[in-house]
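To whoever is on call:

I kicked off a structure prediction for a single chain this morning and the downstream step that reads the tokens threw a length-mismatch warning. I double-checked the sequence; it's 422 residues and nothing unusual in it as far as I can see. Pasting both halves so you can look.
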Amino acid sequence: MAAWHYVIKQERLGPVSDEDIGELVRNGKILRDTLVWKSGFEGWRPAGDVLASFFVETPPPIPTPPSVPPSARMSEEAAPPPQDDAPLKSIRMSSWSHPEATGPWPRFWARAIDCWLLAPTLSFVIAIAAAFYAPTLYVQFTSLNSTVLGLGLLPVVGIVLALMMAVIGTTPGKAILGIRVTSIADGNKFLFYLIRELKVWVFGLGLGIPFVALFTQIYQCRRVGAGNAAGYDEGFAMVVGRPSGVRVGVGAACAAALFFGMVVLSAIDKTAQAEIETTRTWRNPITQQNAEIARTWTDEEMKTNTGRLFYFASNTLSAEALFGHEVIDGGLDVETYGEALGKVLAPDLTLTSGWIPTTVNGKRGLRATARPLKFPQTHVEVLVRVSGNDAWRVLVFAVGRPTNDLPGRDNLVNALFSTAEY
């Protein structure tokens, strides 16, 4: 009687008899893609290939094994199963065609769902975390070109997918399409899935480079469509599952919905970036003078104890600005006004430089830099100008970068001060 060995969850089990192996199949413990071995096999083979009779609804009677000489029986029973460095690790996918190998389109939709779901999610999580704990990184992250950002996120998505496979055995896309990925060899599950994701990234997705990815995906699609393993899976992994037409349709619809969502997000991002370049008219309520400022800046008037104060904000730039005016009876020189303003701001801001003479719209003024006491990663620029009895000030707040690096900073400051003339 043959002694069978089998592999479940990377663990080699057995030996068991013919009757026991049949019972394991009927109980669902051994599936068609489960690897089995007995003496006489060159290596581990899928149960569906060598135990086909057990997978029918009514199994036929077990045939009476032919009589063999005692010496032959002893040598057969004594033969050990393949070891770690035996055919278990050297078996190649191209040497057999798995009866439930997954076709190219279900695999494509599963991968699309995983990438188009996880990439925006990871981008959002990274952005939120950076905004709270590393504002400088947040500014750099949000200023990245979308193509560059996608290229950088793709390997991170692969790591997350490998972790999900190792922990829960599937990913959102594979769960929807009913696809399973199993290792041919024993070893650490996370390391196996991590190596496979790396191979998919390089040989399947072409590192995410659009032109290269087109050729790598066509090549792998043709291999799988012809009944072979993908190049990155050959001799390494099995991808099985025969989803129904309805299931493939659901997967395609999910992928299409995610793709549409990414298009919408991209359009929103492009609109936000365009608002930095396009302008709108803002009227100074004090002087009734108009100025052209970037559309990205929203504005409202704030209540203040003296004079008037206007607040500007841009979520896209992670920046704010204050434009204030007050009347000084009897007039005041700009240096005296600057020193007085520094004292007023002291409870909230620490000046990090002295007052430096500057020119704003051809008029003499002063400039200083500062940092908020409660938000040290915010850079502040203070500019003042005095004309007769009118004192004007602009405070620019930039998160994670110097105000000089803020896109459109000069245009905003000059536009605001240009309205300070009656």
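Update from on-call: the warning came from a stale cache, not from the record. Cleared it. Sanity check on the structure: The chain has three domains: 4-91, 104-275, 279-418.
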